[in-house]
Structures are given as structure tokens and as C-alpha cells.
Amino acid sequence: MPIHWSGIASVAVVFLVLAARPTPDEKPWELAAPAPAIRLRPEKLEQLEGESCGSCHADVLAEWVASAHAISWQDEVYREALTEKSRPQTCHSCHIPKPLLANGLTPRAEARSELQALGIACTSCHSAADGTQLGPAGRPTSAHGTRASDNMTEKASSALCSVCHSTNIGPVVGIAKDFESSKQQERGRSCIGCHMHVLERQPAKGAPEGAAPYKGRSHAIQTPRDPSFLARAFEPTLASDGKRSVVTIKNLAGHRVPGLIGREIRFKAELLDAQGKVVASGELDLDAQRYLPVDQKLEITLGGVGPKVRLVGEHVDPRADKPVRFLERTLELSR
Questions:
Q1: Which domains does the chain show, CATH number per domain?
Q2: DSSP secondary structure code for residue 181 in this structure
């Protein structure tokens, strides 16, 4: 069946994160907690020698240890990929970065020599050069100095993420460049708005007596390994010209999809007659070379007309033993 591509350039991509836009009746902070169907290897960081933030921020630590950020240095897929590179050190800066906000926002990440097992650690994003800990509010504590940083607010934080996520190196394409070029921030969107759901935090140890709970962001990080999250990246619709049916799939993410070499997104559409029998079908396969650009649409054309189309989406991930179904939806023609 014919598949129509819009403005696609051939590239070698990418990264593992995927920004899903809320549907019109949702707000960004109503993201569900991550529920990945595809597990990391290792599933979480176990070696925490040298990690001290968790003694006061146990809730954040519990989220972070099971994230791709935490295992970025020990990740089995990453370690295997390094064996094929002649200069593996060029990859280290984003997998074990020094504090990115040490002296204002650095334009380029640099690798640290200490506590490498902690991967993208708390200090990578929160530490200033003088040891002050940075956050969106700079809440006071007796444990250490704190200071509010504009780079940690939702409005400006995407620039912090972009230090690493806009980097093109080896198999990785900087998908944050799509986010920037399509002016997502000017449209009120942010990386954390899609990838870090809001939850209620209790004051950490050392907070002033009587400090109230506050809204914070989960450090578990939403990724396309979570089927429900991946489904939010696409808006499928059905139309007909009287002779054929057309399923249009729009990219609602703030960057191209998919975002990883080896990752595939497969859609299968089945046209159903009034009795529910399949009378025509078509497929759309996306990968690193045949990706769906930011804000663009692709079509699956079905030879015939019927009242409904069953659409199924499957995610092929290098970590998974088999494709994972992330979408199963029945589309109906508007009356």
C-alpha cells in the first residue's frame, strides 16, 4: 500500500527519549508514573558508593536509580557499543558528565573522573562550582547551600537537557535540535513537561520546621519503553474520499520519532466492514532512516471504504526480546 512521506532527510540517529504531548483535555503534570514494559540492563543502579544525596532525598533516589540516567555508565547496551568505537572516550562526557551548571550553563559536557558508576548523577544537573545545590526554587535546608536557578525551571530547563541531547556523535543524533528548531519552547512545551511527571514531595531532612509539601518532578523519567507514554506521541485519524480510506498519523512529540538506531515503530491498519471483517490492510514502518519528522504526518492508504479501521502499533526496541504493543485503537469515520 502506498505510504506518503513528508520532508524526510536520511540521517543516522538518535537517543532514547521521546517527548509525548498531552492531548487537549490534559495538562502536562497529569502524566502517569512511568510503567516501562521494556527493562533496562541492569534494571537499576545497585552500586551507590559515594552517593550521598539519598540520605536526605530518599524518594528522589528511589526514582533515579531505576532510570536510564542512573545506569548511563553501566548500561550493557552502551558498554557493548563502546567496544566497536576507536575513540570511546568521546562518548563519556554525556554518560558521566561533570556539573553542567557549575559556572552557568556549559555549552559542552565534560567527563568526570570520580564516581563514574553513578552515571548522570545528582551533581551533574544540580551542583554549582561552590557546592551550592541548584533547583527551581532554592528551598532552604541546613544540609547544604541552595540557590534557585532559572536553568532548573520548566520554562528554561530544556536548554540544560540539550547540552547532551543535542549532541551528534557515533550512533546518536541530537533530537533536542528538532525541539529547538521547531520552537517548542515558544509554544509552552519543555523536556521535563513531557518526561518528568509532577508529584507531591515531602520536605527533605534539614528543611525548616513546618515546611510544607510541594510540587516536584519525578526523576524516574518517562521513555518510549513505557507503552502508554509512547502512544501519546501519535495522533491517528481516519478519513475517506469515497473510494479509499486514509489513516493519518501525526507526530505529537517535540522531535522526530523514533529516536534510536535499532528502534522501530510499526503501525498496521485493518479496514473493517460492517460485520467486523477485515477487507483491506496497510502498514507503516518507522526507523532511524525513515522517521516521522517533528509536527509532520504520514499516511496509510487502504483500498476501500468501511466504517472502522483497527490500528495497532508495535515498538521494536534493541533491549526487547520481541515487539511490544503500545497502541490498539479502533478509528471511526466522522459523521
A1: 36-217 (no CATH), 227-332 (2.60.40)
A2: H
